[in-house]
Each structure stands twice: as C-alpha cells, then as structure tokens.
Amino acid sequence: MVAPFVKKSYWTLAALGGIWALLLAAAIHPTVQSHLVYMHKLHHGYFQNAKNPEEFGFAKGQVTPFWLETSDAEHLFCWHVLPLDVYLEHERELVSRVQDDVVESGEFVKTLGARLLREDTESKLVINFHGNAGHLALGWRPSIYRSMSGIPRTHTFVCDYRGFGLSTANNAPHRPTEPGLITDGVSIVSFALNTLHHPAARTTLLGQSLGTAVTAATALYFTDPSSPLLPASLPHPPTTPQPFAAVILAAAFTDLPTLLKSYKIKGVVPILSPLQNYPKIASFLSARIIDTWPTLPRLQALTTAATTASTPLHITILHARNDQEIPFHMAETVYAPLETALLGEEGAISVSERRSIQGGERVSRGAFAYRKVETKQGERSVEVEVVRYGGHSEGVGWGQVSLAVRRAWGRGEATR
C-alpha cells in the first residue's frame, strides 16, 4: 500500500519538476519570457466588457472609456473615473451624455468629465498603474478606482499598457516591453499635464506590483529625463521638473532579477528559488532576463535629482505582511537607501517604529512597521508602512492606500 503511493508521488513530483525546468529553458526566448513576465494575455475576463464600466460597480456615466495615443502611436484603452461628489452634482447631465463607443483622446477632452477635471481649480487626479496580467478591470482592480472616487474631487485615470486588454501593440516587437511600458506611463502623465493642463502638484502617481516599476520610471522622467536609467527612446523631455503631490508604491520590489529569486506565481509556483543551491544556473538564467526593471536605482536617482533641483518629492511605500508573491521585507529594502540619501540633507530627521515578535509594542501606522525620513522643511519625504492584511492585490483598494492619497492632498493644501 505504501510503496505504490510513494512511487506515484515520486513520479508526480518528477513530472512537475520536468515541466518547471522546460518552462525555465523556454523562458530564455524573448517572446516566451514576455508572456511569463507580463502575463498580458492571461486573465479570466474574456466574458467581461471593459467598455461598459457599469459591469464593475460604477454608476451610469461615472466612467468615461477613451483611447489615448502614445508618443509612438500606440492606442491605450483608458478609463476616467469621476469622484462621487462631482458625479452627484452633475448626475443628470452625465447620464444623458453616456456614449456607447469609446471616445478618441481628441474627443475625450471635449467630454463633460474632462471639462469638470480641467476647469475645477480644486480638482485632484490619481493616475493609477496596475500590475501584470489581464486588463484594467480585472479582479480587485476596480476596487481601487471606487475607493479613489470616494475622496472629494479626486478623479482617477487608469490605462491598459500596450498589449494588455484592448490596448494595441502595433510597434515591434508587438508585445509588452520595459521601454514600451515606460513610454505608456510617460504618455499618460503627459496627456494629463499638457493636454488637460492638470497641475502636477494636484496629481498623485499610484502603482501596484509591476505598476510600481512603471511609476518609478515615469516619476524619474518628469524629474530627470536625461537619466541614463531611462530608455533613450522616450519623447522630448519636459523643460522643468514636475513636483507631483505624491508617488505611492504598493507592493514594490527592487528589480526583477532579485524579485524572481523569491517570487512565486500566486504564492504557489516558484520561479528561481529552487535553484538556490545551483548558483551558476541561477546566474545564467538571471543574466538572460531582458526587462530588468531596476526600480530601486530609479527611485534613488529620483531622490537625488529632486534634491539637486530642490523639487518637492513625497514617496510612500506600502506592503502587506501577508503578501504571498512579493515578500513584505522588500518594502524596507527599497526604503533604506532612500532614507540614507535624504538623511544627507542638512536637518533631515527619521523615525522608526516596529512591532516586536511578541507583539507587545505598537506602531502608529502600518501595524508591523512604520519608518519615515523627512527633510528639515518637509519638502521631501519617504515613508514605508508594513500593514497586516491585504495580500498582494486586494490591499490596493483598502483604506491604507486611500489614506496615503488623502494625506498627499492634505499636505498640498497645507503648502498652498
């Protein structure tokens, strides 16, 4: 009885190991690697219609789907989500103007929603960069847009990257790439700042998982577009650094090769961690990762550039302790070098609160850990919160993210 069971288990594990090894070998090919990293074609929403936001819990006319053309002529499928207080003020007119078709970017600027964003001197904007896999309305993602819509006068933009959802991928290599996604991020923010003339000081960049890497690169571009850490293919840079209200990163990571050493797909399927005892094989595979997404170096460059230019900068790093895909300790790994950089400024101070293993102590924010560094006058700050719950994806729509955005607006009001 025991021997057949052991034998069957052995061959099952051997088969799974063989499949995993074949996937790693295939991942060296750029196209296969792209699908494994971005998972842009992997989702369960084939029977969902992202062109109809009411399917995802939004009021009729609250969301305007539109196409946004990037600097290299890709067309990104986007949503503009109105805040509920603004929606309520104009509900009858918004409902009467609902269109069945997705509007082009040139037509979008003429919509009532765009006008309400552009003409309201108190309007605020969150530009959200979602993680890998699927499309902008997949899974828990609509919860973050609904959460943002409850913050007074806070509009939300979210777009699918090239190759994701309904967005095009017409340019070679006709799939998502690191330079391509950064171009998308830059194009979205440029549209908000330059076409809609929404000020950076009332704009927050919010990224989750892969979106934190896009957010970091985009924020760096609008502070130091000449940075060698950015793709050379990006469009002409802005003339002056743009001081965003906040840069909020939920489930950030240092860089992709480092992440893959511990990353597990859905917290179950390991990537490179089984190769810890085979460093030469692990190094061989890591060296063949095409899109490395050096998020920490870009955040360090962003912090240095903001300091050099005396530009305001406020970074918030959020991570859930029960995140099964990206280990929560990576949040503090990202934070620590940024803290060191800001402490180099005269008068900068830092605070650190941590809950012990026994749970006797408490922290004011974050449940398990809260650290913050701030310059003397408060122009630049970086903070990290390790919260108790939220997992990898669900937590982005929870209170901690909404509070981070509200704090950004409160800081802006105090400054003005």
Q: Could you explain the architecture of this structure?
A:
It is a single chain. With 416 residues, the protein is of the alpha/beta class. The protein has helices at 2-26, 30-38, 84-89, 91-96, 105-108, 112-119, 141-149, 178-195, 210-221, 256-260, 279-286, 295-308, 329-343, 399-415, and strands at 63-69, 75-81, 124-129, 154-159, 203-208, 246-250, 264-265, 269-270, 313-320, 349-354, 369-374, 380-387. It has one domain (2-415): Rossmann fold, CATH 3.40.50. The longest helix is centred in the first third of the chain and has 25 residues, at 2-26. The chain is globular. The N and C termini lie far apart (76 Å). The model has no long low-confidence stretch (mean pLDDT 87). This is Alpha/beta-hydrolase. It comes from Karstenula rhodostoma CBS 690.94.
